[in-house]
């Protein structure tokens, strides 16, 4: 048995996060940071790709950009929340978008999102919001 340091144990998480964004730089940045703090991550470059990846990687949370080609983030959020498969419809969704009006936020929340973060954002804030979603759902 391999002993782990306290720091390694703190950062060892079991939650899986699917990151969906058509901006490859943003996708890589978020992926790198979430891996760094211990999340298991998968990525998708658009909504159609995400629909396939959800079944393959079985994430606990999906981070969605709103403005994407083919299937945008709000449509994908509705698809997740209205899905007949309970494993999919119970996924947590965090919307990440450059759209910043209260109406944009309201549309995302009404589509079923658990939280809404506007770009640009602080990576620490994003990680804290993800942790909050997981903590609220484990109560």
Concise account of the structure shown:
The chain has 139 residues and is of the alpha/beta class. The protein is 48% helix and 18% strand.
Please tell me about this protein's structure.
The structure is a single chain. The longest helix is centred in the last third of the chain and has 15 residues, at 123-137. 28% of the residues are buried. The chain has 7 helices and 5 strands; from the N terminus they run αβαβαβααβαβα. Helices cover 48% and strands 18% of the residues. With 139 residues, the protein is an alpha/beta fold. The protein starts with 5 loop residues before the first helix and ends with a helix. Mean pLDDT is 91; it is low at 1-9. It has helices spanning 6-11, 24-36, 47-57, 73-81, 86-89, 102-110, 123-137, and strands at 16-20, 40-44, 61-65, 92-97, 115-118. The protein has one domain (11-137): 3-Layer(aba) Sandwich (Rossmann fold). It has a 5-stranded parallel β-sheet, sandwiched between helices.
